[in-house]
Amino acid sequence: MTVTITAFERSPDRGRGLARDMPVRWALEEVGQPYDVRLVSFPAMKQPSHLALQPFGQIPTYEEGDLVLFESGAIILHLAVNHPGLLPDDAHARARAVAWMFAAASTLEPPILEREGAILTDYDKGWHEERLPILKDRIRGRLGPLSRALGSADWLDGAFSAGDLMMITVLRRLKGSSLLEEYRNLPAYVARGEERPAFKRAFDAQLAVFLASANG
Question: Which of 34, 117, 136, 164 makes a 20 to 30 Å CA pair with 90?
Fold first, then answer.
């Protein structure tokens, strides 16, 4: 049964692999699941046909027969549960991997996105320069414990899992800032994820869409 996901027709990430379809593509590549991509424009995402798949008018969506999912984390969890390769066999290890998935989405990502939003939309506000150090410290309050939990290991809990996939996806949003570099093991952790063949295939596929839209 063919899987179809949706992605931006013209991604605002400019080919950096930060759009929400990227981790879903990566997960699909990790488990060896073929998939089709339906590209949608920003206006199309607000139309009834798309809202029937994604109530908030975002991407990605996931269609597999009569199953329709939204939210990248939920899609990745579905793939991890139903295909080998993203969750350990041991029940306790599986539970810990899922916990790291939630940590990526609920603990690490919110302050990182808050900083992004401040940089993009609040740069002209009088309090902008005062707020940025506060936001950076909030991120450090998350990166420090993560760095200690990872320690000298390659991955967060044994073998690479969906928890690592989602955590590395979140940390990639800090590339280019000095924040990640303050923790010696985290840039190397991200680099290991980016070296995985499945990541490279997913990144190249998303980049090809952006390049086609830029040249169109």
Answer: 34
The angle, 0 to 180 degrees and rounded to 10, between the axes of the packed helices 91-103 and 162-171 is 20
Phi (first) and psi of residue 175, to 5 degrees: -60, 135
pTM to 2 decimals?
A: 0.94
The stretches of 122-184 forming alpha helices (DSSP H) are 128-150, 162-171
Q: What are phi and psi of 20, to 5 degrees?
A: -65, -20
Q: What is the pLDDT of residue 216?
A: 64
Distance in angstroms (rounded) separating the CA atoms of residues 148 and 186: 10
Tell me how far apart the alpha carbons of residues 199 and 160 are, in angstroms, rounded to a whole number: 12
Which tokens in the block code for residue 34? 């073929």
Given a cut of 60, whether residue 50 has pLDDT beyond it is yes
**Distance between CA atoms of 158 and 211, rounded to whole angstroms?**
37
Q: Concatenate the DSSP letters of all residues of 17-57 into one string.
A: S-STHHHHHHHHHHHT--EEEEEE-TTGGGSHHHHTT-TTS
- What the block records as the tokens of 151 is 């320690």
Write the pLDDT tens digit of every residue in 70-101. 999 999 999 999 999 999 999 999 999 999 99
Say how many C-beta atoms besides its own lie within 10 A of residue 173's C-beta.
18
